[in-house]
């Protein structure tokens, strides 16, 4: 029988993910030791309340409210408490002590990642975070390692299960946003306070991490353009389906050109978008996540699966635990964060995209020519126009125009929409959605 050296593992957090991670570490100790080349000894689990109910049974003797004592002397620290503090302080303490750290805390990394990665590099430790983006889906390691020799051009991600469930239900059943959100809450897809999800904050944090990793450039959270899904209506979703699209909340990270046309930069944005039914992301249903990567040599790749859940996220955490253990067995410093490219962060105005614009207009001769002139004045080309006759409003017949543009800068398209809203033949700009994935 092979005897392995033991590595001391401290778990911070005994919630849904923390309790599952601990249970799996204990249950599969022999298998994990064989894979890692070292025994993984759980020295304790730091919790707020030792007597609180948990998803899985953790031996009572492992539970403690003294997190700092656990960190001291640990070889591997797993942070699963969430939030900014005390998580930041505890991770810095763990790194400073020479421990490798594994975290699922995307908010902390989005706000303080530069500081934490710098500390890890200074002391030769490693900070792992596979579970911070898209739950069980392996995407951090493929971007960091498998595609390190390639040039990633663009990432389209469905990285929030709550919003995907809501939009998918609206598409499948015709529910309003409020009804779909209520059902998501009842089923446990949405938190009691769903703001972070439905307003796009969660997805924006993940977009910042993905963009930083894919483009070897630190992308701060405040540089990520963010829009939520609260304004998406059932009518928009139905119209999208008729036109051959579905509505998805996308995290989009891509290389773009600056205004001079030659300087390359990076853009990261989160917003609802129309995705063609023929695109693989259109088939991502329920609370699932998917990340679609476009690379120069590898081509198009999609990573799909459960984006949340205690045991699913625990899978990603345990993968990082094995990697950390192997590093300890082999020896040597951790691999520093790759930010050598240092590309400029460009605003969404520089992004090339398409719009679908729905207008209510007066129904009289010359309206289409007037609308076309507005597009032309802003150097935006129209791909398709669909017109339907509407009701009579204040004695004046009206019509609905649904216009899909060709690709143009977001700045030009936004200016076009603003000009349309002020035009006398336009009664209302009913909706504006970007079209992605073509």
TrEMBL record:
SUPFAM superfamilies: ACT-like (SSF55021), Glyceraldehyde-3-phosphate dehydrogenase-like, C-terminal domain (SSF55347), NAD(P)-binding Rossmann-fold domains (SSF51735). The active site is at 206 (proton donor). NADP(+) binds at residues 12-19. Keywords: Amino-acid biosynthesis, Methionine biosynthesis, NADP, Oxidoreductase, Sodium, Threonine biosynthesis. Pfam families: ACT (PF01842), Homoserine_dh (PF00742), NAD_binding_3 (PF03447). NADPH binds at residue 106. This is Homoserine dehydrogenase. It comes from Salinibacterium amurskyense.
């Amino acid at each position: 029988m092979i005897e392995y050296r033991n590595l001391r593992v401290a778990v911070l957090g005994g919630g849904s993910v923390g309790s599952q991670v601990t249970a799996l570490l204990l249950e599969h100790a022999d298998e994990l030791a064989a894979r890692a080349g070292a025994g993984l000894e759980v020295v304790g689990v730091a919790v707020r309340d030792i007597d609180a109910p948990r998803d899985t049974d953790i031996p009572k003797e492992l539970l403690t409210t003294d997190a700092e004592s656990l960190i001291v002397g640990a070889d591997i620290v797993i942070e699963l408490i969430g939030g900014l503090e005390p998580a930041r302080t505890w991770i810095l303490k763990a790194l400073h002590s020479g421990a490798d750290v594994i975290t699922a805390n995307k908010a902390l990394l989005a706000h303080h990642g530069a500081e934490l990665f710098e500390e890890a590099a200074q002391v030769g430790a490693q900070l792992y975070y596979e579970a911070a983006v898209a739950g069980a889906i392996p995407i951090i390691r493929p971007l960091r390692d498998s595609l390190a020799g390639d040039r990633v051009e663009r990432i389209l991600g469905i990285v929030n299960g709550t919003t995907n469930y809501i939009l998918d239900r609206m598409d499948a059943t015709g529910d309003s946003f409020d009804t779909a959100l209520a059902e998501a809450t009842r089923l446990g897809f949405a938190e009691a306070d769903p703001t972070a999800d439905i307003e796009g904050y969660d997805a924006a944090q993940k977009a910042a991490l993905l963009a930083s990793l894919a483009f070897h450039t630190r992308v701060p959270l405040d540089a990520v353009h963010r829009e939520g899904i609260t304004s998406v209506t059932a009518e928009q979703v139905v119209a999208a389906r008729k036109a051959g699209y579905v509505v998805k909340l996308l995290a989009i990270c891509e290389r773009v050109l600056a205004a001079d046309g030659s300087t390359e930069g990076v853009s990261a944005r989160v917003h609802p978008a129309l995705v063609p039914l023929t695109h693989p992301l259109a088939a991502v249903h329920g609370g699932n996540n998917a990340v679609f990567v476009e690379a120069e040599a590898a081509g198009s790749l999609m990573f799909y699966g459960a984006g949340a859940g205690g045991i699913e996220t625990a899978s990603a955490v345990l993968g990082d635990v094995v990697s950390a253990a192997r590093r300890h067995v082999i020896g040597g410093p951790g691999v520093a964060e790759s930010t050598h490219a240092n590309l400029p962060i460009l605003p969404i105005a520089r992004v090339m995209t398409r719009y679908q614009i729905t207008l209510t207009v007066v129904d009289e001769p010359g309206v289409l020519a007037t609308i076309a002139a507005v597009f032309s004045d802003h150097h935006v080309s129209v791909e398709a126009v669909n017109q339907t006759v509407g009701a009579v409003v204040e004695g004046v017949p009206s019509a609905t125009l649904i216009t899909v543009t060709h690709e143009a800068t977001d700045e030009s398209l936004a200016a076009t929409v603003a000009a349309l809203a002020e035009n006398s033949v336009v009664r209302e700009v009913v909706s504006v959605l970007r079209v992605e994935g073509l």
